[in-house]
Amino acid sequence: MSILRIGKVAINVLDLAEARRHYGEFLGLTETASAPGTAYFKGWDEYDHHSVILKENDRAGLDHLAFKVRFPDDLARIESTCERFGFPVQRVSAGSRIGEGEAVATTLPTGHRIEFYQQMERVGIAVGNTNPEPWPDDRRGVGVNRFDHVLLTGEDLEGVTRFFVEGLDFHQSERLINKEGGLLASFLHVTNKAHDIAFIKGPNGKLHHVGFYVETWDDVLRAADLQSRHRVRTELTPSRHGLTRGLTTYFFDPSGNRNETYAGGTFPHYDNDVVTWTEDEAARAIFFHGREMIPSFGSALT
Amino acid sequence: MSILRIGKVAINVLDLAEARRHYGEFLGLTETASAPGTAYFKGWDEYDHHSVILKENDRAGLDHLAFKVRFPDDLARIESTCERFGFPVQRVSAGSRIGEGEAVATTLPTGHRIEFYQQMERVGIAVGNTNPEPWPDDRRGVGVNRFDHVLLTGEDLEGVTRFFVEGLDFHQSERLINKEGGLLASFLHVTNKAHDIAFIKGPNGKLHHVGFYVETWDDVLRAADLQSRHRVRTELTPSRHGLTRGLTTYFFDPSGNRNETYAGGTFPHYDNDVVTWTEDEAARAIFFHGREMIPSFGSALT
Amino acid sequence: MSILRIGKVAINVLDLAEARRHYGEFLGLTETASAPGTAYFKGWDEYDHHSVILKENDRAGLDHLAFKVRFPDDLARIESTCERFGFPVQRVSAGSRIGEGEAVATTLPTGHRIEFYQQMERVGIAVGNTNPEPWPDDRRGVGVNRFDHVLLTGEDLEGVTRFFVEGLDFHQSERLINKEGGLLASFLHVTNKAHDIAFIKGPNGKLHHVGFYVETWDDVLRAADLQSRHRVRTELTPSRHGLTRGLTTYFFDPSGNRNETYAGGTFPHYDNDVVTWTEDEAARAIFFHGREMIPSFGSALT
Amino acid sequence: MSILRIGKVAINVLDLAEARRHYGEFLGLTETASAPGTAYFKGWDEYDHHSVILKENDRAGLDHLAFKVRFPDDLARIESTCERFGFPVQRVSAGSRIGEGEAVATTLPTGHRIEFYQQMERVGIAVGNTNPEPWPDDRRGVGVNRFDHVLLTGEDLEGVTRFFVEGLDFHQSERLINKEGGLLASFLHVTNKAHDIAFIKGPNGKLHHVGFYVETWDDVLRAADLQSRHRVRTELTPSRHGLTRGLTTYFFDPSGNRNETYAGGTFPHYDNDVVTWTEDEAARAIFFHGREMIPSFGSALT
């Protein structure tokens, strides 16, 4: 099978109006469609109809996330893979959500719902495809380019890593291990980025953060300036991660879902060795500059 | 088949000692092996034994370039593909060059020799794989991270594009076309970068430039400062390409082979639309800021 | 006497409507007042009512420039100084232009009219003075912070340097000299920037360029991207000057007056030695990266 | 009188060998002279013999700091001013320290010793004065350009501000005030930088930090990366100050003296209005991104 990328995240929010302001005005995503209790967004540099769905709910957290596959019959192959791993499988009909084709859905042992789809309506990038400018005139707020990755928490990181690597042909770029070699964090990619999806040890079913790509360290500064201007609750001021080398800020949407602006980061290949971080260096692996664990990092989960 | 990336370029140079100073001291590649008339180099952020080979010769230009494949039996599949396209095929024995496994070689209709290999000795990245720093202490000169891409010239861009897209499953990210829709430039990628290999209309068999990746626009400035300090012959001062959005300088090695420092650039996917530049915007496509063709751009080929 | 800075430049433009779009929409200055054939502008980070005046005229070029002094009686002292140097002196009444207090005017031996003033109406910086944000929400276009400096041409650079240094207590930061030690360029500052005013050898009375300050090398890239987007005639793409170390683009307003975006640059003190560039390094002094004289640099004067 | 800048800081350190590694190898200052228990350093972009003196002592903290004046008779005028303010005055003979001319010394009401000098031996900037490169080849470690400013603590901020403004003709750029308008912080400049010297409310006689100038936000990242690599105790990871808009990291030398890398920042003039921060915004004034007071900020004083 052939997975193109992590293509979509659906996030539960407590108040859709507030969330719209956050993801639309502040982060600068573009709203492409809506339905009662739901809004669809894309980044300016994304082609597909949406990469973020906001769903009003009485609890924050992850509704589901989805990977886009390249060929129609990848869906059937993924179905078989899930069955081989003993995971539940379900088909989602085309049109169940705005702009989406048929999907295959499963639930990971970590309790997260993931889907796979091959069809989505097309909107196109904001700068167009003919003699385009390098960035759009009307970038708003932080002006993130695209949805980039998610970090989830779960108990069985070995199991979930095996599913992605052996079942779905992802590659592990980096990992954090304890003294016994057990996984405390597992970073997995199918594109040449440090992570399309990553997991850290923690309660099943929880969302740690949704990452959005910005281009440069200067963009990270600009994001942090805007976080301050708009009093966005901020957990991590501009910093580098040891894991992935990425440049980052962490902050929360009005419902308490953690977001990240992420720039830089490695460009890993499938024949790269896995980069290993040891537990005694965990704080430095995550907060490379501060080198101290921020307490809410492990507890503020949705 | 499964191609991991463009992995290697072998460049003919007129004077090996001078070329060593340029690629080693100035660009900051690391020499990993040598043989009479030949030197092997890698970037600090590359795992394999070498990505650049310098070969002393009485003419500058491209000796060959090579793509790394993921699985051993990819080589046989590529052999068949080449035969299907009517291209000559040749096996290169393991050990013909230092550190290299067996390769399959062919010659493109544009006259360039390309190879495919699955095995290369391993040296590892300069920062190591366990709790690594984000960059090495001993970066020298420009300190490029890695060999990134090549641009070649040739007559039949439609043919060579068909081979890469249909034969080798590359994707075309961007193109420059004339009024009749004929290709003047074709950008092809197999990783999520704007180009692993690209072609512009011109004489067969020629090398336009070898691109090396640096991380940021500040690194491009630093490169340009060093080009001036070391009186490296420079063709393009810091600028952006319209094609790929990349940030860049062009300059020449002592033998007249053009090099590029390249940062930024898009992160294309296989389902992206092709970005099209029209001939009337050609100067802007290449020199986005200056918007005038630099005469040597089309004529300084090796 | 005590001169605070170069505070104002009045520029002749051929078409006020076009010039307004250029200085207002493109550069991002704010229009603060207008009168028939005249418009007044300030940068977002400037306190005074205006720093740029556009005057419709049948020829482009400099109308006059002006230095702000600290104390009311500095004007009389400057008057005496001008008389001591044998320069013509004239008083300009308060209110002759919108927002301006009384001024002392003279004409340099290079034929440029300069004025000195102590009073100007106050508008204040765009971010306000109480708990301010670091930059305004509504930055438009390039979004320059402020008017920074001018470069003028003239024949007697020794004479004009003597007036500024001995008469007005400026300091020479850098200079370009020929083999005989004669001045080809003279950079003069009264604040801690590389130049408030500079002169290069050339015809008397001409304006070479008006420099506007932007904060970073990333801002210079952004300016160059916007110059391309808006097809602003560009002479120098992002580059460094050897003289002053400044980061820069050169481009022209619709009337042919050269503008510069300028970032970085040294922070000179009055006890600094003068930095000297020799004529054989003139191209590198001006175009540090390209190291070749751009022909229009010496000829495109207004 | 005419004060050129803050020119020198003498810091008490517990272990000179460790301090030498910190200020020399890590920060990248150049040692220009030494005597038993004392070492003299300068930044690569400074002309004078030294700007930092390290003195071995059994307590960390400030030994003294010094302002350079422009003219020899400024010293007598400052002497009178100190006497007029009722401050003790003392002459320090030329040659009391290596490379230094005669000085006038006083003690501020806040208990800090400050000196004024007009003469210091000359070493010159690392890139030289003729056709110089923009930065030196052999920058080490963080590679700070220069000593920039100090922040001191004291009780009577109104008194010390009056001395600098009325006595020494400094200008107040920014201030933090409580509800009654009392000063909690006072930023004072004599050059066009946001602060040559600043004070915050706190115990008399203490040093809060010594600031070193780096050029860009990318340099701040590089500094933070090196702080992590060399396990330098870090208090503030890359951030912006609201006060001055400066970009910054805080960290400690091995004796516990706080250092800052500082880039950006405003370019204030003597006719600028004072920027005022109110106590309820104090955390944001200092830590613009984190918007929470870091406890050690007020307590880690030497």
Q: Extract low-pLDDT stretches of chain A.
A: none
Q: What would CATH call the architecture of the largest domain in chain A?
A: Roll
Mean pLDDT of chain A: 97
Indicate the multimeric state: homotetramer
Keywords (chains A, B, C, D): Aromatic hydrocarbons catabolism, Dioxygenase, Metal-binding, Oxidoreductase, Repeat
Domain VOC (chains A, B, C, D): 5-119, 146-264
Subunit structure (chains A, B, C, D): Homotetramer.
GO molecular function (chains A, B, C, D): catechol 2,3-dioxygenase activity; ferrous iron binding
Q: Can you give a write-up of this model?
A:
Four copies of one chain form a homotetramer. Chain A is an alpha/beta fold and 302 residues long. Chain A has two domains: 3-120, 2,3-Dihydroxybiphenyl 1,2-Dioxygenase, domain 1, CATH 3.10.180.10; 146-286, 2,3-Dihydroxybiphenyl 1,2-Dioxygenase, domain 1 (Roll), CATH 3.10.180. Chain A is 19% helix and 37% strand. The first copy, chain A, contains six helices and 17 strands. Chain A has a nine-stranded mixed β-sheet with strand order 14-15-16-13-9-12-11-10-17. An eight-stranded mixed β-sheet of chain A has the order 2-3-4-1-5-8-7-6, covered by helices on one side. In chain A, a hairpin with a 7-residue loop joins strand 11 (183-189) and strand 12. The two termini of chain A are 31 Å apart. Chain B binds chain D through residues 133-135, 137, 216, 218, 225, 228-229, and chain D through 133-135, 137, 216, 218, 225, 228-229. Chains A, B, C, D: This is Catechol 2,3-dioxygenase. Chains A, B, C, D: Keywords: Aromatic hydrocarbons catabolism, Dioxygenase, Metal-binding, Oxidoreductase, Repeat. Chains A, B, C, D: GO terms for molecular function: catechol 2,3-dioxygenase activity; ferrous iron binding. Chains A, B, C, D: Belongs to the extradiol ring-cleavage dioxygenase family.
